[in-house]
Amino acid sequence: MSFPRPKKTASEDELYEYAVGALARRMRSIAELKRLLRPRVESDTEYGRTLVELVIRRLKDQGYLNDAKYATAYSSFRRDNEKFGRRRVVTDLKVKGVHGEVIEKAVASVYDEVNEEKQAREYLRRKRLQKPKDRKQAARVFRQLARAGFGSKTIFIILKKWDVDDETLSALDGELE
Question: Are the beta carbons of 149 and 86 closer than 8 angstroms?
Fold first, then answer.
């Protein structure tokens, strides 16, 4: 089943109503909202690009759209609910089109007081990952923690406390390079 193309609009009010509805469903970054609005206007024309910018400006002025608040809320949600590490949150925010300086400030403020090892252990508990019994399981835990945004130093501390042998640790260290 194919989905119909979004209907094009030439009205600022219609585009604004659509944008407010999109923001009501979930919080979005400015770049995400622009990507969502472009198919609804003739984006290859100057008028279409101007229309999108007008709607974005109006939403910013009314306080509905703010990348700094978005990045802070997103970071704290991912820290508290998903138990992700700092690196994963930074990467996800970059994908969502948030500016680098905004990301740095938001993530720094949210992750300042976080103990990375404790956060990684909470992530492991959330994912129900147990102490690895062999080399293959240790590698699986290592990769999963790396994808979740934890640093290699933290991962090795956890694996050492789980009595993973040094040969496996050195092999995993080689995997990083």
Answer: yes
